Amino acid sequence: MHLQSGSEFLQDLNKQLPIPNDFRNTFMATMNSLGFPLQTRNLSIVNGSLDGIMVENPGALIFDTSLDLGSGIGADVRLHFTPEENISGYEIDYIQPTVVGVPVGDTFYAYAESPAYTAGLDSAPGGTVLFESFFGADPSPVEQQIIAALQVDASSFIPSLSSLAIDEQNWYNSVDGTEPMPFDAYIGGSDNEPHITLNQEYIDFLNDEILNFYLDVPSINLTEQVVILGNPVKENINFQITGGNFYKNLTICVLNTTGQKVAVYQLEQTKGIITIPSPDTNGLYYLNISTENTHLVKKIIIQK
Q1: Per-residue pLDDT tens for 120-131?
Q2: 9, 125, 137, 288: which has the highest count of C-beta atoms within 10 A?
Q3: How many CB atoms lie within 10 A of CB 272?
Q4: Which of 71, 156, 64, 73 is nearest to 119 (CA)?
């Protein structure tokens, strides 16, 4: 996208800023056609620093080395991060072919620009990708030379602000929780971690959101017994509240294992056996049964 017209490797110097890929538009169009759940609680795990700690200094050197390609053929190569804000024409890539150490042929350069409001994205606070991961488990001899020459380990892959969908021009700003965002809850730390890191703290956060926020498991206080009549469920969900008490304003919420509400039923007057429709899809579900001052959670299995 940054190449000169008709060239396979020469850069169009008028194109030095990042250019969005059409993949995002295709992805969003697909998601819009599928539709979105109407009742959700949006959560985010941020692997990038929330305190504005950079992955690396903008414009920093990634590697600068001479590669041995065999039979006396080589290449001097140099790679940098994109630059500080409001800088253009910054050399980020340099390749000079050599024969027995003597430069031959054309030298390749690539240049980058950063806008006035932020430095480059590749060194911004964010979940990282390791440079070594690009070469796989069995790197070639040339790739091993590049790995040995690396001056830094990783670059930013998903900026912290992007992880929270925060509309902020400066990707290096810290997050204090007051920024407008579409998430109801999030978790992250001070350090930049590899992208999709999932540690015990993050697992506990997800469990708490599902079990405590949606299901309120620690607060079970229903003195009467709820008996599921037939579990696994094949057709309708039938359950009975024993003890003979009469309930008003009973709320029955069916949730899937991710905590999403599949269905909600409001019953004004309830006693004895209660019947509600079962979800269309087989699997494990939770039945959250609540009144004005008490509630209970039951597991059900749909097996049609």
Answers
A1: 999 999 999 999
A2: 125
A3: 9
A4: 156
φ and ψ of 295, to 5 deg: -160, 165
Q: What distances in angstroms separate CA 22 from CA 18, 25, 54, one per listed residue?
A: 13, 5, 28
Whether the per-residue pLDDT at 77 is higher than 90: the answer is yes
- First and final C-alpha spacing in the chain: 51
Strand 43-49, strand 185-189: pairing: parallel
Check residue 234 and give its pLDDT.
86
Domains, the chain: 40-205 (no CATH), 220-302 (2.60.40.3080)
**Long-range Cβ contact pairs of 216-221 (< 8 A, separation 24 or more):** 216/288, 216/295, 216/297, 217/297, 219/295, 220/295, 220/296, 220/297, 221/294, 221/295
Q: For position 65, what pLDDT does the model report? A: 98
Helices (H), the chain: 22-34, 141-149, 160-163, 200-207
Cβ atoms of residues 60 and 80 within 8 Å: yes
Percent of the chain whose predicted confidence (pLDDT) is above 90: 54
Rounded Cα–Cα distance for residues 206 and 214 (Å): 11
In this structure, are residues 49 and 66 in contact, taking their beta carbons and an 8 Å threshold? no
Find where tokens 């209660």 sit.
274
CA atoms of 304 and 298, how far apart (whole Å): 19
* Angle at CA of residue 69, ends 68 and 73, nearest 5°: 90
Tens digit of each residue's pLDDT (9 = 90 or more) over 186-206: 999 999 999 999 999 999 898
What is the total residue count of the chain?
304
Element (H, E) at 24: helix 22-34
Residue 276 identity (one-letter amino acid): I
Report pLDDT for 141: 95
pLDDT of residue 37: 66
User: What is the pLDDT, as a whole number, of residue 219?
Assistant: 38
